[in-house]
Write a structure and sequence with these properties.
Layout (H helix, E strand, L loop, with lengths): L7 E6 L6 H12 L2 E4 H11 L2 H11 L6 H12 L7 E5 L5 H13 L6 E6 L2 H9 L1 E4 L5 E3 L19 E2 L6 H15 L1 H8 L3 E5 L4 H16 L1
Parallel strand pairs: 1-3, 1-4, 2-3, 4-8
Antiparallel strand pairs: 5-6, 5-7
The structure holds adenosine monophosphate.
Length: about 220
C-alpha cells in the first residue's frame, strides 16, 4: 500500500511588515493549505478574554513576544483541528529557538517534518511605512494597505462588500520598532537553523505583492509537487 502523503508544513519567516500574512492567504488560495497565524490566534484569545488572552494582551501591546508556553498551547490546539490535514502555512510561528524545536517535536509525533521555510527578505527601513498603512475588513479579514493595496471601490471590501475596516492596536510606530527588535534578537537566528537543515528558501520580498506571489507560487509548486 502506498505511504499516506505527509501533510505539507510551510513556514513563512520575516519581520513584521514583510508580507507573511498577505502571502500566506494567497498560498492558501493557490494550494489548498490552511494559514495558521499565531498572531491571529492570540488576537482572538485577547478578544475572547480567555486566560491566555489576558496574559498575552499587554505583552502584545508592547511589541514583545508572548511566552513560548502560551503560544505552543494555542498552536498545538489549532494543529489538531481536522482542516489542517492537507497542510499548513505557518505565519508568525516559530519565533524562537524553543518554538522551532517544539514544532519539530510536535511534527515528529505525527511522522511529519517541516517541508519548506521561506524567508521573506526585506529592508527594515521600509517596514514601518508598510505596517502603518495596514487595515483589515472587519467582516471577512481581507487585508488592505493605504498605499500598496486599496480596494477597487474606496471604502468597500473587494472580497465581501464590507464597509468597516479595522487597524491593529500594535501597528503604531513605537510598537513596530520593538517588534522589529524582537524579530532580530529572537527570530532571525531561525534562518540559520533551517538553512542547516536544507529546507530554507530566501526570496526578495521588497517588490510588488503580485510579483512576490508568483515567485512564491513557483517555489511552493516545486516544493509541494
Ligand atoms: P503578528 O500578527 O504575527 O505580527 O503577531 C502580533 C503579536 O503577537 C507579536 O508582536 C507577539 O506579541 C505575538 N505573537 C504572535 N506570534 C507569536 C509567536 N510565535 N511567539 C510569541 N509571540 C507571538
Amino acid at each position: 500500500m502506498p505511504e499516506p502523503q505527509a501533510a505539507a508544513v510551510v513556514i513563512l519567516l520575516g519581520p513584521p511588515g514583510a508580507g507573511k500574512g498577505t502571502q500566506a492567504r494567497m498560498l492558501e488560495a493557490d494550494f489548498g493549505l490552511v494559514q495558521l497565524s499565531t498572531g491571529d490566534l492570540l488576537r482572538a484569545a485577547v478578544a475572547a478574554g480567555s486566560e491566555a488572552g489576558r496574559a498575552a494582551k499587554a505583552v502584545m501591546a508592547a511589541g514583545q513576544l508572548v511566552s513560548d508556553e502560551i503560544v505552543l498551547a494555542i498552536l498545538r490546539e489549532r494543529m489538531a483541528a481536522p482542516d489542517t490535514a492537507r497542510g499548513v502555512i505557518l505565519d508568525g510561528f516559530p519565533r524562537t529557538d524553543a518554538q522551532a524545536r517544539a514544532l519539530d517535536g510536535l511534527l515528529a509525533e505525527q511522522g511529519q517534518k517541516v517541508t519548506a521555510v521561506v524567508s521573506l527578505e526585506v529592508d527594515d527601513a521600509a517596514m514601518v511605512g508598510r505596517i502603518s498603512g495596514r487595515h483589515t475588513c472587519a467582516a471577512c479579514g481581507e487585508g488592505y494597505h493605504d498605499q500598496f493595496k486599496l480596494p477597487a471601490q474606496a471604502g468597500v471590501c473587494d472580497k465581501c462588500g464590507g464597509t468597516t475596516f479595522t487597524r491593529r492596536a500594535d501597528d503604531n510606530a513605537d510598537t513596530v520598532l520593538a517588534r522589529l527588535q524582537a524579530y532580530h534578537a529572537q527570530t532571525a537566528p531561525l534562518i540559520a537553523y533551517y538553512e542547516g537543515r536544507g529546507v530554507l528558501h530566501r526570496i526578495d520580498a521588497m517588490g510588488a505583492i503580485a510579483d512576490i506571489r508568483s515567485t512564491l507560487a513557483a517555489l511552493a509548486g516545486g516544493v509541494l509537487a
